[in-house]
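Researcher: Here's my situation. A collaborator sent me these components and asked whether they could plausibly form a single complex. I don't have experimental data yet, so a predicted model of the whole assembly would be a useful starting point for our discussion.
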Amino acid sequence: MTAVKKIPKDDVVIEGLTGDAAIAHALKQCDVDVLAAYPITPQTIIVEDFQKFAADGEVKTKVIPVESEHSAMSACVGASAAGARVATATASAGLALMWEILYCAASMRMPIVLTIANRALSAPINIHNDHSDSYGARDSGFIQIYTQSCQEAYDTTIMAFKIAEDHDVLLPIMVCIDGFILSHNVERVEMLPDDAVADFLGIREPVQPLDPNNPITMGPLALTDYYFEFKEQQDRAIKNVPDIFKRVEAEFEKMTGRSYGMFETHKTEDADIIILTHSTAGGTAKVVADTLREQGEKVGVVRLRMFRPFPSEEIAEVVKNAKAVAVFEKCLSFGGAGNPLAMELRTALYHLAERPMVTDFVIGLGGRDVPPTTFVEGYEKTKEYLKKGEAPSYETLGVRK
Amino acid sequence: MALDFAKGITEIRWHGRGGQGVVTSNQMLGKSALTEGNYIQAFPEFGPERTGAPVRAFLRISKNPIQIYAQVYHPDVVVCIDPTLLEVVNPVEGLKEDGVLVLNTTKTPEEIREKYGFKGGKVVTVDASKIAMDILGRPFYNMPTLAAVIKATEIVELKTAIETVLERYPGKVGDLNKAAMERAAEEAKIG
């Protein structure tokens, strides 16, 4: 491995890019061997832009325009098995159609980078943002990272290959941006020089690639005899992710000065109430915390990035002294004991002798705008519940009832 | 007391119709601000893309990284590039009292103030439709209206915006837009 060097300021290119375009540029620089994808809003620009790079000869990637997302992920698994560096992109119904093969990709330990522009699931058809699509895939074995800004999406896409391809991990990874809110939002993005990204990532070193001269079979059948052992190994692999993630981020920081963590903490140290959320809502939550702090409110924010593996211990450590944690999440788990994000948090806190109260607010389904006032409303409700000493298990905010 | 969640950020809301280029002119202004060293967010309000339907686009400009991700509810600047929309949408809705209203219209700023009861800030009018037809020969009035926005707000230099437009539309289209923008900047009335 070459030593990572700080990139001189003059070598950085600054451009206005949408979240999708930022990811497409990152993929271009990551020297992807194979990209197989099927277009779906709002990730379309990722694949469109990448196809343009391919058509213009700017990348050497083999782009496979498949007939469905099921085929897209299947092609990715095949290419990854042959030792290629592989990426794809999808959203919503597209992710749902990939479902069967998501599990194959993870179980066969294929380090595929899957970029997702989070979008609601049908019905009714809705093209806008929530997290029902990728939350649903939480048990597939993919690593999941949610990003707030176009810069973070660009940076995380680059780091994703290095995390996934590490021999202590070898798992596929989802890099998520909020559909439309970020995917179609032009922001300032600092782009690294091509050779810096190439040096940072190196070339993928497959452990055991398909090779016509030494034929092997991958992932065919394991019944009562060995299936469980495969799962045991997969479980161990995902537990390795935090260490590798931290190492990769530390290297990236040396090069760029930027790192993000498994989650970001904002004014949490003396906070009575901590907001837990992620993606673009995490940005808005920080602004709300800053504004409420000026009014004398002791409020902070944990903006989660890594949902799988969930950093239980680390988050428990950060929030354990707060009086309450107010979860804001864009998904309903119909009939569940809790909605996905609150359920993770409550589980992470269960072992503590004294736990903060956890309130849970479901927001922004189907792209319903989440203005700062929605956070203020949930914050005020949480204060009220603290006074009463009890809270409902969850409630929806910003919806006609 | 209303809380201010957009301190240090200039927020702009555009009104237009699908196909008129409101998303593009919003991005051109955003990219110009970026070129001048600012952080930006330029995003449209999306629906199924229907030509002719009212659409909105939003822009945030700040010296610092922008953390808020939500629609713009209390803009500093409102721009409407289509005169026929003024009968459909209320351009001053949410506009700050000291805000700037920029309209493509044949009316004068005084007439517009009267129509909307908008007393504060600035009202800027420009007949961008005529300028577009005279120079481009087609109703592309997004860029001339953009020039009026710049004249009124001085949020970027006109020169920067013209360079951004020329980069996006090299050749004849860019040159004609440049001419339209320069004329609009001259003709725009502030009152």
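Model: Some features of this prediction you could bring to your collaborator: Chain B touches chain A at residues 3-5, 27, 30-31, 34, 38-44, 46, 48, 65-71, 73 (CB under 8 Å). The CA atoms of residues 25 and 98 of chain B lie 23 Å apart.
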